[in-house]
Amino acid sequence: MDATFTAEQEEIRRTLRELLLKRCGPEEVRTAVQSEAGYDSALWETLAQQLGLPGLAFPEAYGGVGCSATELALASEELGRSLAPSPLLATAVLGAPLLLALGSEDQRAALLPRIASGELTAALAVPGASLTTALGLTGDNRGDWAGGGRAGGVQARRTDGGWRLYGQADQVLDGHSAGLLLVAAHTGGFARSRTLLFLVRDALGRDGSGGSAGVTRVRLTSLDETRSQARIQLRDVEAELLGEEDESSDVAGALASVGDSAAAVLAAEAVGAADRVLERTVEYVKQREQFGRAIGSFQAVKHRLADLYVQVQAARSAAYYAAWATGAGEERVGGLALAQALEALRITSSEAVQLHGGIGFTWEHEAHLYFKRAAGDELLFGPVHRLREHAADAARLFGGGEVAV
């Protein structure tokens, strides 16, 4: 592993940081999350069309940039510093890789260039609160999480004209605004039970209204407003199977692979957020005075900040290694990096609230944006102890049987 960044990678970080400092401060973030889309559409257009972020990590043949997960992780680290709300995670980290891994050539050619340009956003819809299970981060994803049996979850039924979907998916990231839905559904009944992925195209309609018949979306009120979530109900919805009609397609394996790379990207994003909130806390304790001196000069405060710095740097090292390892083809490293990064963000944001004193306890202060991101991400992608437990079981660290992912 080469721990140094290339000139291109450094340029990605520098350009993004400069842009976000100008256009994505705390007030801009609060304004963006209150919009109908849940993010700043003009900023997303800049990120997509001028910087090429949605297509950063997929091939040039489909309109992408041709970089690896490392570049995507570095970009996400900068987005995490400002908590910039955007559909990048749902579209480029979860949706596009599944299209690449399982989609037919026609599906890739039709959809990926639109994703790369920013014209089309995507969302991965899995039943209930099963996202981390579906991605193989906190448990075996070869079970019946998609809705086994006769009811529950999302069911797919073959008809003469194709496939029809029935059911409900909750906590769908950016599901209220995505133009393309990738839906995990159970099919085959008891005899040939399996989980497949389906495409619901033009889910919003070409003009942003209407869309596929039978699809109902409700944007949910979430703890972390910068991470938009939706409930999607499917009532006899026409869908298209992702990929070919092939019994040998490994949907669970593709989901687990995407989960590992997504965990590495999320770890980098959490590290960026932790680093920024620590910077802001250090700035504050240098200015706030008590008993005639800056509170940052007190030894107890110095020790607390030093501990936070060590924790953030350790999480950064783990995130960078996970991003490199994912690009190099190694597996089962993203979950551990994500656990360490989420823990660092939770502790750092909590300490930031404490060290800011009375002002830190007000909802209006930006420290709460980071605190809620830490809590929200651990609810969505954790908890930390389950990420570590599953990674340990998969690696057979304690002599247990190997977990299939």
Automatic annotation (TrEMBL):
Q: Which SUPFAM superfamilies match?
A: Acyl-CoA dehydrogenase C-terminal domain-like (SSF47203), Acyl-CoA dehydrogenase NM domain-like (SSF56645)
Task: Name the keywords, alphabetized.
Answer: Coiled coil, FAD, Flavoprotein, Oxidoreductase
Q: Which residues form the Acyl-CoA dehydrogenase/oxidase N-terminal domain?
A: 6-119
Instruction: Please give the Pfam families that the UniProt record associates with this protein.
Output: Acyl-CoA_dh_1, Acyl-CoA_dh_N
Record's InterPro entries?
Acyl-CoA_Oxase/DH_mid-dom_sf, AcylCo_DH-like_C, AcylCo_DH/oxidase_C, AcylCoA_DH/ox_N, AcylCoA_DH/ox_N_sf, AcylCoA_DH/oxidase_NM_dom_sf
Q: Which cofactor does it need?
A: FAD
Q: Which residues form the Acyl-CoA dehydrogenase/oxidase C-terminal domain?
A: 264-393
Question: Where, by residue number, does the polypeptide cross the bilayer?
Answer: none
The chain's coiled-coil residues are 220-247
Q: Which PANTHER family match?
A: ACYL-COA DEHYDROGENASE (PTHR43884), ACYL-COA DEHYDROGENASE FADE28 (PTHR43884:SF20)
> What is stated as this protein's family in its record?
Belongs to the acyl-CoA dehydrogenase family.
Q: What is this protein called?
A: Acyl-CoA/acyl-ACP dehydrogenase
Q: Which organism is it from?
A: Streptomyces phaeochromogenes
